[in-house]
Amino acid sequence: MAGKLIIIGFGPGSEKHFTERAKEAIRECDCILGYKTYIDLVKNLIEDKEIISTGMSEEVERAQAAVKIAEAGKKVAVISSGDAGVYGMAGLIYEVLAEKGWDPKTGFEVEVVPGISAINSCASLLGAPIMHDACTISLSDHLTPWELIARRIEAAAMADFVIALYNPKSGRRMRQIEEAQKILLKYRSRETPVGLVKSAYRERQHVVITTLEEMFNHEIGMLTTVIIGNSTTFVYSGKMITPRGYQRKYSLNAEVQKLRLHERLKQENEPWALHGGQEKIQTPATLAEEALNKINKPITPVFEDIFMVAVSPGVANKRFTPNQLLVLAKVAGEKGIIEYSTDHQIHLQIPTSNPDHIVEELRNAGFLLSPIGDVLTVKACDFCDGEKTGAIPIAEQLYERLNGIQLPKELKVGINGCGMACYGAVKEDIGLIFRQGKFDLFIGAKPVGRTFHAGQLVEEGIEPEKVIGIIEAILQEYKEKAHPNERLYKFFKRVKVLCGYPYKDMTPDFEIPPAVCGD
Ligand code: SAH
Question: Which UniProt key words apply to this protein (predicted)?
């Protein structure tokens, strides 16, 4: 039996907006895969099917599983909300297929069933905000560098696109939407209409029309799409409307139009258009000039990069000197951000086109510098202000060898100088506790969420000279085998044995209901 893989976008969420082909395709399939919230949304349609529901961040496993099922000769559907080809599963599945060398002529059939994407469903509830050139930008920087997202926002803002912001905010990503607003305000007025649509065509649908200035007075979450109007978008009677441009040629309140039908496409009546090979016609083109003026706001300080770096006075040393604080203030300047982080570091974000001189100044002030992102961060206690010297050399060596290395997901190695563990190393992804001249090793803490748990003790009494080698081996295995974005504890749970250490479930044995924004 020939397998088939169908990737289905089921639209915003209500069955009425599910296309006929999507319903039919689900009927055709033996097995359905999807994120559990989506499976629930479409449960009426899939009662008799084999269902494999997974967590939200398990897309890669889901795509691989779907491909395997189709290879085994079954018909399988993968469901995505909205359109599966818009930040959905379609691309990832084709990427997995490309990795495997799938050939449409000889391999199983693949079909993508289109659905109504959030930009369309949300626009319909707001009125008609995307009547003119529009774009979508996802604010999720889990897989895309923030710098690139910021540039795209800037470019779209500058070019006067209507912008639909997907993934505007989640429990862990709060700042992106604030940064986006700052960029937009460089090019658009504070009064620009903004539509916030949460859970379009779902049970908890909520629609708000506000302005760019006031958008944060309303709730924005991971089920919201934010639609930013262009410079001509207006609000009328609770509806957000972007003009198509008819007013340039027509009088919308007159029954008889000034321009007759045959006159409407004449060059002199479209002075704003690009006319084939001719000089621009000089007419008092008030409307055209008006339109251009609206977007010709100052376009100067564009594309200054944001340099991001983490600094600390030392691995064990936690004391800043007054001069170091002065240097931080100086390099951050008026526009930079200085932020205290949870890893005993200060994070800097500085708009600059020349980060080298900043690096030099920070180094001269005696700072240790580390990259920010999906990298390893060494976090140590202060070894009782340097009184307990035993483990300091190892902490420093760990920092030198491993701090800042790229990993599938951010990872923290905590080190404590004694068994008191007052800095809580056991709650980091990897924890090391120095005790009676040797190290105890903990791995796999779940450092976030309501089902937080400490790491499991995997080995006691490790000789100091062996510690770095062991950590490197763990990281090597993690780097090679983990999925992108898979945190160490999830990876350990999935592979069951890491560097020879068997996995033990550390999840609390009492029931903790999942939080709204994930697990
Ligand atoms: N494939 C989906 C997008 C997935 S990305 C689509 O085409 O619509 C997830 C983001 O989509 C959410 O953060 C939100 O911004 C948007 N979204 C998806 N469904 C939505 C809905 N019913 N109402 C409002 N926004 C929605």
Answer: 4Fe-4S, Cobalamin biosynthesis, Iron, Iron-sulfur, Metal-binding, Methyltransferase, S-adenosyl-L-methionine, Transferase
